[in-house]
Amino acid sequence: MFRSVSSASLPQPKVDFLKGELHRKHPGVTNLKTVRLPEQLQLAAQSIIHRVRMPQLVERSQKLTNFLWSRKRAVEDLMLRQKAVSMEKELWGKAVQNIREDVDEQLLEDRIRKKVLSELRRTTHRWTPLKYDEDLSIVYMAARLAGGYAAVRRALNEIKKRHPSFAPQTLLDFGSGLGTVAWLVCKGWGDSLKEIVCVDSSAAMNVLAEQLLKGDDERAQPHIKHVYFRQFLPVSPKVQFDLVVAAFTLSELPNANDRADVVTTLWRKTNSYLVLVENGTKEGHQMMMEARDVLLKKQEKVVHDSRPASVFAPCPHEMMCPKLAKEPVMPCNFHQRYHPLPLPGRHECQTEKFSYLILSRTKPAEPTPEGLDWGRLIAPVLCRTRHVHCHMCCSDGRLQHMVVTARKHSRDVYRCARNSEWGDQLPIVEYVKEETEVHSDSSDLHPVK
């Protein structure tokens, strides 16, 4: 038999975390519905593809997508040396057991070194830089325009939703590629923006981004004004931008030192928010954590802006990522549905998996009330009868599997959980507990709707 519990007997949150919002629009909801490219951007991309008529474009774009998704970071020199020394010791150990008195040690040493080099060549990932010429830039546009746009839009929505008064006047997009960030920021903060600086080392990519802005018409005015394309970052360390974005850029850098230098330089140029986005793979997630560690732990010799970095999203804490501490290591990633460019054989909605990191110099306008905390949903939410399974990363730096019920967590938290999705935040609150009114002689306890 079910027990009947009056609404007054359910636990009541100590704080009003809803702030007058509906449960399906609670403050932790930052997910988006299926994302579409702006019509002008999609028409411009289709016009360029139709004009160029590149053979096997669909096949080449799929091949590039697979390459970028499976791409690993280059093995660092120190790790390579350590691996070589370990292999050499192992081979010497085996050789000593079978060594004969008449063996030439110099010859044996040469053989072992050759075997080590051969094995390293066979097993070590060969990282190669991509050089975006005119052809590869168009292939990249066909492969990544819509997916990249969807991922960055979802990341920027975190700022839009949680800091509604933020009105950036300047944007720096490092590794701007097709210029999609300019389209996104103009869509979200077009009224306040006065300057957009797009930096990409590929001249061909910059030309293609300008063509997209002009609707593939050289004589037309760009759809977005005050966009400036550069191949190098502004030199002065004192020049800052309200919003700095680097999307799918760190993976184009050859080693950890270069990534650390770039992240540090971008942070110097950040006035409010720095947004980093990468593929939702182990490599992409680990690059995000690398960048986070650099900015939270490294002390600069010359400080131009003394305001420290703090993690805005997605992490609810600044401790070691608990996902990196677990075996097997699984990436912390999120997903966004989107409509792809309408190419042959590509019409259905697709899903972009990505990892991201947002660091802030600005303190929250309203401090979190006592008795209220927010956890990040790091997996799909499983809604069942009268309970919801939520896998969360919490502010204490631990992963938690929370089974949310109305009786245990309050009706408001339960309804919020049912209306939340992977990537949203969910409130963790303290309650004022009331005695329950039991109208059944059954000893079994059942959660209520």
UniProtKB/TrEMBL annotation:
Subcellular compartments: Mitochondrion matrix
A single MF term (Gene Ontology): methyltransferase activity
Function: Mitochondrial ribosome (mitoribosome) assembly factor. Binds at the interface of the head and body domains of the mitochondrial small ribosomal subunit (mt-SSU), occluding the mRNA channel and preventing compaction of the head domain towards the body. Probable inactive methyltransferase: retains the characteristic folding and ability to bind S-adenosyl-L-methionine, but it probably lost its methyltransferase activity.
A UniProt-annotated Pfam family: Rsm22
Name by which UniProt lists this protein: Ribosome assembly protein METTL17, mitochondrial
Any single Gene Ontology cellular-component annotation: mitochondrial small ribosomal subunit
Family, as annotated: Belongs to the methyltransferase superfamily. Rsm22 family.
Presence of the UniProt keyword Mitochondrion in the record: yes
One GO biological process term: translation
Keyword field: 4Fe-4S, Iron, Iron-sulfur, Metal-binding, Mitochondrion, S-adenosyl-L-methionine, Transit peptide
Sections of the chain in a coiled coil: none
Species name: Poecilia formosa (Amazon molly)
Oligomeric form and interacting partners: Associates with the mitochondrial ribosome (mitoribosome).
Domain of life: Eukaryota
